Amino acid sequence: MALQHLAKSGNATTREISAARQIPYDLLAKVMQSLKRDGIVDSYQGAHGGYAMLISPGSVNLSRVMNALDEDTNLAECMSTGISHEQCSMYENCTIKDPLNKLQMRMEESVGKMTIAELL
Amino acid sequence: MALQHLAKSGNATTREISAARQIPYDLLAKVMQSLKRDGIVDSYQGAHGGYAMLISPGSVNLSRVMNALDEDTNLAECMSTGISHEQCSMYENCTIKDPLNKLQMRMEESVGKMTIAELL
DNA sequence: GGAAATAGGACTAAATTAGTCGTATTGATT
DNA sequence: AATCAATACGACTAATTTAGTCCTATTTCC
């Protein structure tokens, strides 16, 4: 909702979006910071500051937004990069690992096909 | 994992699957009951009882399995059928309702394309 | 200097999901 | 008839995750 608002209005403050969309201010603030961190939006501090899209809405797909907001968007823990193999004792002889990976790729693809531009 | 096991072995008891896949017995029992309720598997009570596939693995897609196990698989509460309109005060002037519905349909489609047969 | 904004860490509360427990029922075997 | 091994199921508890809050910096315009 925040990105839809931003894409429509060009730029806005957290306070404005919070009021317009009835989103708790503090929560939205966290969301905006995450979007900034990912480089989806740009921020301007100080008085008369706020946020603006850094990338064209059509170039921001929902898969990217998901990953910007959540640190782990995998279907299972073992699918994260890194030390995850040790986390599951069944990792070596797991028989659903491959199909699960395939499923995740397909889902990411379908989520990735929708962009912020399609929310306007 | 349970369905993969069942599809491979033809039939099995909860105890067998639990041991083979290291799934907590009580939890798996609940899962099997849900699958039975949905009509994906058939159950046989009493001694020498157990479960067997009721439908061919190729006809059981993961979307159906999801819905069999979870009572609500919607992206948002307002997308459930029934009284949900009253649950969200913003329902009438929600501006992401339509794209969200479209997204859910696309995701369901991609999940629905994979069947238990593809786990074998 | 003050007001209005972002930045971010630490925390709490709510909701969800995973897992357990107790008991009933069914049905083949002895 | 008794027993044992299985499903059925409701109620509960524990763990995890997610939503939301609070406090304090920092930045920048006026």
Structure explained in plain terms:
- 2 copies of one chain form a homodimer.
- Chain A has a 3-stranded antiparallel sheet with strand order 1-3-2.
- With 120 residues, chain A is mainly alpha-helical.
- The model of chain A has no long low-confidence stretch (mean pLDDT 93).
- In chain A, helix 2 packs across helix 3.
- Chain A has 5 helices and 3 strands, in the order H-E-H-H-E-E-H-H.
- In chain A, strand 2 and strand 3 form a beta hairpin.
- At the A-B interface, helix 5 of A face helix 5 of B.
Largest interface: A-B, 21 and 21 residues
Unreliable stretches of chain A: none
Structural class of chain A: mainly alpha
Helix coverage percent of chain A = 40-55%
Mean pLDDT of chain A: 93
First-last Cα distance of chain A: 10 Å
> What is the quaternary state of this protein?
homodimer
- Radius of gyration of chain A equals 18 Å
Task: Outline the fold blueprint.
Two copies of one chain form a homodimer.
Chain A (H helix, E strand, L loop, with lengths): L1 H8 L1 E2 L1 H8 L3 H14 L2 E4 L5 E4 L8 H8 L27 H16 L8
Helix pairs in contact in A: 2-3
The first copy, chain A, binds a DNA duplex (30 and 30 nucleotides) through α3.
